[in-house]
């Protein structure tokens, strides 16, 4: 029997059995933001195979709209600079959360009120907490400016939404 045909299926099966054995749920994830001035929590709940509800409660942001993205890496050892670019496994151009052409990590904007507080809840249908487009081990980045959804005509509109500097970030990890 050719083991090369069987091996690709054994690792995922082993991981599934291991997670079931140790009681790890892949249905909930969390990202905790802690900077000098900005703090908060972003929660992710897998509600169906291709639907994740994202809830963000953040304080300390400047009032207004801020780009809100999933970035490639969960490594924030060098602040938000080590998070990489937007999570884009399909090699698409940047877009808004309702665009058919967009990065998997393009979540749109969050809006801080006059007190710098964000309360955001939305379902997204193009990533999961497990499988091919899992966001576990990646990061959330909140940007200084509003995301133009790739429509702004700036040099970086089709890559970053012209969202500006990275104000805060956190690593997305499995939640209890």
Question: How would you portray this structure in words?
Answer:
The chain has one domain: Superoxide dismutase, copper/zinc binding domain (Immunoglobulin-like, Sandwich), CATH 2.60.40.200. It is 14% helix and 37% strand. The strands form 2 sheets. The protein has a 5-stranded antiparallel β-sheet, with no helix packed on it. A 4-stranded antiparallel β-sheet has the order 6-4-8-9, with no helix packed on it. The N terminus is likely disordered.
- Would you tell me which CATH topology applies? Immunoglobulin-like
What is the helical fraction, as a range of percent?
10-25%
Low-pLDDT segments: 3-25
Shape: globular
Q: Which CATH-level-2 architecture?
A: Sandwich
State which percent range the strand residues make up. 35-45%
Mean pLDDT: 86
Number of domains: 1
Order of helices and strands: HEEEEEEEEHEE
The total of helices stands at 2
Q: How many DSSP E strands? A: 10
Strand line-up across the major sheet: 7-3-2-1-10
CATH superfamily: Superoxide dismutase, copper/zinc binding domain
Indicate the radius of gyration in whole angstroms: 17 Å
How is the biggest beta sheet arranged?
5 strands, antiparallel
Helix/sheet category: mainly beta
What would CATH call the class?
Answer: Mainly Beta
Q: Termini separation (Å)?
A: 41 Å
What is the topological layout?
Layout: H1 3-22, E1 28-34, E2 39-48, E3 51-59, E4 64-71, E5 77-80, E6 106-112, E7 118-124, E8 139-143, H2 157-160, E9 166-171, E10 173-174
Antiparallel strand pairs: 1-2, 1-10, 2-3, 3-7, 4-6, 4-8, 8-9
